[in-house]
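MODEL INPUT / OUTPUT PAIR
PAIR INDEX: 1
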Amino acid sequence: MEQEFYLGLAQRVRVIAEKADPFTRRRLLDLAKRYDAKGGISRSEPTERPLPVPRTTAPASIFSGPGEA
């Protein structure tokens, strides 16, 4: 009975994670894995790729045009 409870929680958390931003999704999927472990299932799903680091400066091509100031 307790196994079913945790497996149900894991499934609900995954549904919520589908609609979440990337940071929250990662945290929710980690939580779902912990619920799976408590329910007796060990999942080996591929981890998500990290997001690229946002640029802090504009590309050089913007500045290489004719002398506009």
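PAIR INDEX: 2
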Amino acid sequence: MVENIWREYHKQLLTFIQKRVGDPSMADDILQEVFLKIHCKIDSLQQERKIKAWLFQITRNTIIDFHRKSYSKTDLDEQIIDLEDENDPKAMEDIQSCIVPMIKSLPEGYREALILSELNGLSQKQLSEKLQISYSAAKSRVQRGRNLLKEALNQCCSFVHDSKGRIIDYEKKVSSCKNCQDNK
């Protein structure tokens, strides 16, 4: 059965892995690891008609394991919300449900700057005009607000990034985040 799966799906799985890893030789290694897991876990497949979803879940988990090994703990970049989890749209909602309360908990100047720029879509130039502050002061408030938000998110969650720095997985540190506890 594993041989049939290889014939039918290995090209799709390899392409899927390559898009998330970037290194072709590493992608080949991950694909081999995926098929080892498939071989070991084939008996756990309960519904053969759901084989494709099962295969891609194993592949996705193997890629995440690879990134966890590569990036034991990396900084969260400015693209905080760039989650790449096709099977779990709830993941994006979870993060977003934490971000707004975190922004609201920031000191007033930073909170206002982030709400107006990040949530309401004002440019930093428009922000400076609305708040009647200099353009450089507006840029500084947004940048400092982002850094405070980034620190709050890193205290709340552990993030796993792909080779391009995009977030592909996260895990809540529930005991340390009041916002996440409120949003369960």
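PAIR 2 NOTE: The radius of gyration is 21 Å.
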